[in-house]
Amino acid sequence: MRKVMPGNENVARAAIAAGCRFFAGYPITPSSELAATMSALLPKAGGTFIQMEDEIASMAAVIGASIAGKKVMTATSGPGFSLKQEHIGLACMMEIPVVIVNVMRGGPSTGLPTHPSQGDVMQARWGTHGDHSIIALTPSLPNEIYTETIRAFNLAEQYRSPVILLLDEILAHTYEVVDVPESGGYETANRKLPPKGLDRLDFYTYNRNVGDPPILPNFFMGYNFHFESLTHDEMGFPTTDPKKVDLLVKLREAKIEKNKEKIWENDIRMVENADVVVFAYGSVARSGIQAVEKARKDGIKAGLFRPITLWPFPDKPLREAVGNKKVIVAEMNTGLIKREVERALRRDVGGIFKANGTPITPEEILGRIKEEK
Amino acid sequence: MSQESKHYELRFSAVGGQGLITTGVLLAEAMVEYEGLYAIHSPRYTAQVRGGPTKVDVIIDNKPIYFPKTTSVDFYLSTSQQSFKAYFQDIKDDAIVVLDSNLVDEFNDPKYKVYRLPLIEIAAKKIGNVVTISTLSLAVTSKLTGLLSLKELEDFVPKSVPRGYEEINLKAVRVGFSLV
User: Fold this and answer.
1) What domains, with CATH codes, occur in chain A?
2) Element housing B138 (H / E)
3) Which residue of A has its CA nearest to B70?
4) Do residue B41 and residue A29 have CB atoms under 8 angstroms apart?
5) A175: nearest CB among B25, B47, B66
6) Chain B: residue nearest A170 by CA?
7) pLDDT tens for each residue of B114-141
């Protein structure tokens, strides 16, 4: 498929290729075209599209459809992402595979509906309350938006976790060439299910190795299993037994933390012999690529570290790649991920931070590279 | 477009609802389909559904395009005085500037190749439907820049517009090519 389309349509097409067959959402700029594309294409693929009464209900609907066995997605932007947080926590607690697309716009509140931002990166990690692990992906390039959408579904299924696909207004609205194999060329993962006919499910659900995702039944498999938002025991019923609570917390965290090496994807360019390294993700990374290529042409040893998996944060790969080199973080917020970079590198770093609705240009990054080298 | 660089930047500015975002989409799609190049269409509009200043940047290149906004504009078309002024930035010295003569004030800067045409009036009266401003502008742009031929547009436009509107848009293409 070689087609000119906006990022929102790109995600919708990739989701269907990944096996998504249920979408519930509530339109909001700049994600609305994603829902519109799903409403047109999903029924033709044998799936179901529902426009719910709001974002809270759409998040609940995708959780229900996922427990019923479908691969599911919802899409929103800042204000709607805030509303979805309660049920994102429910999906974390009940260990339900769901893909949530958040097309970032300026905030807080209704903010800058039609302008780009990367202000929700911390909300993606910590937006829902309580200790939890989560996966968030930040693709930058058109073909990558397609393949990372497919990966979002695979990770959700493999780790039985919400996966957040973070785009921004620029990536969502820019029409550009997407050139990818139509379908069939992609590996798609499916959640593991218990075999039919077991007497009890407790072995499969909680007596698992630390680091393994649970094996849970879908609805309609004939098992009595309780999906519960309270801290629960091996049969899914509420418990406050500290030992069981402790185990559940540990299991939920470890299924992602212990598999970070498999979940991380980074694009690391020309870092080995670099004097200065640009750290950027999402649409800003595109300015980063252009700036670093120009700097190299001008004889400056610049490199790029571009995380495609933002959460769990790639602290170890960043430390290993960058070492003591100078780092410039570029992001469309007041420096939210800079803190993570500093935590990973255990030192202060500089950057370009913009939260005024305008993109960070290659020239701005290049100028900063020239100051730093 | 020069052979060695193959990089061309266009900007269209208007008032929300006038239809120039569609012009940009059609241009980008046609450049990919007929010229085999990379093209990006990057819109900017306000939260107002209609009436706010809008612009769209189109970049054409023979290599993948990373930064999706224009920084050195070769061609600028506008159908609104407010938007024309708001987005008159990064325009190259020898750029082609096309202005709707009914809606944009006199502008005579010798640095630019300025064309003044009553585009919306032509769409509404001569072609017969104001919505053809999208394809009329596409034709004017193609003719002035040489990016697409009349033949290519006659093939592309009918399959890219809503069913039932093929003929009137073809008329807009032909009128657009004859204007400049």
Assistant:
1) 2-179 (3.40.50.970), 202-260 (no CATH), 266-372 (3.40.50.920)
2) helix B133-145
3) A361
4) no
5) B25
6) B42
7) 999 999 999 999 999 999 999 999 999 9
